[in-house]
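Margin note: ligand = pyridoxal-5'-phosphate.
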Amino acid sequence: MAELVKTMKNEVAWDVQKIRADFPILRTEMHGKPLVFLDSAASSQKPQVVIDALSNYYATQHANVHRGVYELSAAATDKFEEARSTVQRFINAEHDHEVVFVRGTTEAINLVAHSFGRKYLQPGDEVMITAMEHHSNIVPWQLVCQMYGAKLVVIPINEAGEINLETVKELMNDRTKLISIVHISNALGTINPIRDIVDMAHQADIPVLADGAQATAHGKVDVRDLDVDFLAFSGHKMFGPTGIGILYGKEKWLEELPPYQGGGEMIRKVTFEETTYNELPFKFEAGTPNIAGSIGLKAAIDYLDNISVEGMQSHEEKLLESATTQLLEIPGVKIIGTAEEKASLVSFVVEGIHPYDIGTLLDHQGIAVRTGHHCAEPLMDIFGITGTIRASFALYNTLEEIDKLVAGVQKAVKMLS
Ligand SMILES: Cc1ncc(COP(=O)(O)O)c(C=O)c1O
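Resulting structure:
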């Protein structure tokens, strides 16, 4: 596990090589070149401790949870509930029953949209999102707005990819029933002022959902500090397994909302005439959950607990600064998303060259980046482009990898111009 080293200037240094040693995939090669993995915003890589937690679980601990009277099932249940408490502590939720295990951010948002819509949305009501949302924070709301005759209101952004709080205030009215907003944009890197929006929304009794998919791998996300009513995030973007994610909801909201899916575990009593529902959080956890995923997510959180958030953030800031400065020196490069508050990713286009072509040439050099619309097609439309090349950084990337990216883009531009 990585340790921190205090430098002479008392700065927190980041031992990136020690961190890298924890991630076996970073020792692999692609097209005969060392893998340079710059697509962590799509899904991050996994440290050995997470891989071990998964395989140990299946090798020695697996049984279904909350069901068996036998020791193995009771132990699996303890592990599963221990994972829930770990998540509770990680996001500083008040109660562990405010933590609902789901498949990921997408399912968490769908859960809220459908349950909230069913109970609260009436014709003429409004749900507010921003212009920089991922499709998973657009389409679920479109679906429920269509179902209940409500309207989706979109907060515009400026050239840099930022929202204006005054505009949010102007758009809010007594028909606004919920605001669902991305914490960190996966396509631009913009960090939104969630707490300010929550303060404004709560003055008008409007609940706020934060899409935290991109936030939890890059710093502390404290639900009580942000005062969000709901938070959605995915394990696989924060060094945990795929197929596991979290919906956090304030107790008062989760108590109010009707169940999303029906099935085993979410019930208290079933008859053919009528069903009553289980207590929180089980009311929202129909069917056998992703037990292994929860245990893997706990291992990822334990891993993050052992590193310095300040060290990671200052390292990621250096990566962002180096990539931004060097890429802008390449003729024809334009960065999409230049918000003042920005996370460690660079989305860019090169004049006259399709992002896919650059991505393919980078791949041949072992450099993995994402190209396309990043599940944010309406956002691409606003910028008048079909897509970007996105290099997204995590705690394990190095400044040398940024240099390789820049050299790779230079080479690709030369070949394709
Ligand atoms: C901002 C944002 N929201 C939501 C999602 C959807 O996450 P998942 O596919 O894990 O459900 C993503 C994934 O890229 C994302 O970046």
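Residues 362 and 408 are 6 Å apart (CA to CA).
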